[in-house]
Amino acid sequence: MSSRAPEIEDYSNLWLFHPISHRLAKALSKTPVHPNMVSFAGAVFGVLAAINYYHYDQGNSALLAFFYMLVWHVLDGTDGQLARLTGKATTAGRAIDGMADHLVYISVYVALGLALTEQMSGFVFIWALVAGASHALQASLLDRQRQVYLFWVYSGKAGGKPSRPIPPKSKFLRGLHMYFQITADYFDSSDTPRQLAYDLKIGKSGSELASAYYRKNYVNYLHTWSLVSPNAHTAAIFIFAYLGQPLYYFLFEIFVMNAIVFILLRFKKHKDAAFCDWMKNVKRK
Question: So what CATH class is 8-284?
Answer without folding.
Answer: mainly alpha
